[in-house]
Amino acid sequence: MGLSDLLKERGSMRSSESLAKIRNKVEPFSILPYLAEYTEKLNYEDDGRAKGVFHPSEISKDHFCPRAWCITHKYEHLVEKRIPMTLRITFDIGHYLHAMMQKYLSQTGLLWGKYRCQICNTLIKGFLGYMTKCCSCGENDWEYIEPRIDNEEWNIHGRTDGILIPPEMNRKYVFEFKTSNSRTYSGLKESMGGHRNQASIYMWCLEQDRIDNLRLLYGEREVLKSGKGEFGEDTQLIMNMLEENIQYHEMPFKGMVVLYLNKDNSTHKEFFVPYDSDVDGYMKKTLFPKLLECKKYLTTGELPKRICRNEAECKLYYCNLNCLKNAELFI
Questions:
Q1: CA-CA distance, 248 to 192, in Å (whole number)?
Q2: What span, in angstroms and rounded, lies between the C-alpha atoms of 117 and 132?
Q3: Concatenated DSSP letters for 189-228?
Q4: What is the C-alpha separation between 9 and 6, in angstroms, rounded?
Q5: What pLDDT score does 82 carry?
Q6: In terms of CB atoms within 10 Å, which of 83, 153, 239, 275 comes out highest?
Q7: CATH code of the region 51-82+146-330
Q8: Which residue(s) pair with 148 in the sheet?
């Protein structure tokens, strides 16, 4: 092989090596811009949250401000609704942890309510148990449908995390699940004030609904027993379903179980809030007067008086309306 042939061969080898380097070069790729774009788009989507109603999570705060609620109702465009990506992830982690805990409780047979099969959408009402399978598709993949709170008299609407019924079947408890970081968790000696208020709202509304429904169910029972209802062969089946419903509503709500989970290390604490005179006292002496101010505004347009006297107090009430700086809008 001559010198020229050797030079050509070496040149060819170098070209092949350069081409291989180009082909094997790894281009950096980041998913963060895509995630940021997606989570930003979510800020412009309707969150499905009902407007113009009292949500328990809002009105239960220790520093609930009727004036801020009314301003938010009228000047919705002034309220900052953008949720940064990191905060949205934090919220979503809490949401998925809720679903996890509800699944755990459903397998114990304590969590009563409606369940939807995530495979075939079959709905059942009552209890699940360990590894309960769907009667339609045979799978064990259930979603718990959180019980609604609807009190039309006071326009209170929301959902609680669950209803617990012990094996004795003679009483009910409301279940609420909260997540926190280590700093907040370490200071928990009892359920937080706002969470106790929230428990009071849930228990009071559910107990009022229980009493109202029981009155209606007793009336339906009398109609069936009198033979005035024309149900034919289905009369006994309907009576059995009615008695089961009556049995459920005859069980009073005795309190609320609040379970806290430390998201940093999965440790947990449980607190019990009894349904006692403090619940009625909070509702009638603390909450209802504030809600009356809001309801008055909806009919007369008269804003409740300002609670905060300076920016420091405004921050204490977690108000992001800057109503002191924009006082001319909120006279």
A1: 30
A2: 11
A3: SS--HHHHHHHHHHHHHHHHHHHHHHHHHHHHHHHHHHT-
A4: 5
A5: 83
A6: 275
A7: 3.90.320
A8: 159
